[in-house]
């Protein structure tokens, strides 16, 4: 009985649980690092997605990637922020998931990544699946299982 319920949970589609693109703080590839740092600081998130002008997903950028890129020998060279672009600093080698993904796949990935970007086949950005949402659902599932014990 318990294993049947766990299987059902792991096979649940993530569709109803993602944060949709319009609610996700993001920057665009052509933006300056100064703008990106402003968005990161104002939103309060440590890393956010990078999109192109057509809202296709390109990568991720974080505050630490930005500071690292302007780190001089003796000081942080803040004057470089305006001239550098997001695309020079962002990372692209990160997992992407589809809207058809199931909890089984994403829980494994969320061990290493705080959030996963949900991308359509044509590259358009659909939203993110966060560690918080996944843990919340897992917690609900564990508490439901307790009723069977
Ligand atoms: O502004 C915030 N609002 C709320 N409600 N929670 C926040 C906020 N900032 C941080 N948190 C909490 C969340 O629980 O701290 C965790 C770590 O944040 P992070 O990574 O290091 O900025 C948050 O965990 P989470 O909800 O599982 O989110 C995991 C990561 O997903 C965040 C951030 O990089 C990204 N993220 C989440 N919501 C986002 C977002 N990026 C852009 N736009 C969003 N709406």
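Sequence proposed for the structure above (149 residues):
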């Amino acid at each position: 009985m318990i294993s049947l319920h766990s299987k059902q949970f792991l096979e649940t589609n993530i569709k109803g649980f993602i944060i949709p693109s319009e609610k996700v703080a993001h920057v665009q590839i052509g933006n300056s690092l100064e703008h990106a740092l402003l968005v990161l600081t104002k939103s309060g998130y440590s890393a956010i997605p990078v999109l192109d002008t057509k809202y296709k997903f390109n990568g991720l950028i974080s505050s630490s990637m930005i500071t690292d890129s302007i780190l001089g020998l003796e000081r942080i060279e803040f004057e470089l922020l305006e001239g550098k672009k997001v695309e020079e600093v962002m990372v692209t080698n990160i997992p992407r998931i589809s809207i058809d993904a199931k909890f089984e796949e994403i829980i494994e990935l969320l061990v290493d990544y705080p959030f996963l970007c949900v991308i359509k086949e044509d590259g358009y950005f659909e939203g993110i699946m966060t560690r918080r949402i996944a843990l919340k659902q897992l917690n609900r599932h564990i508490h439901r299982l307790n009723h069977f014990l």
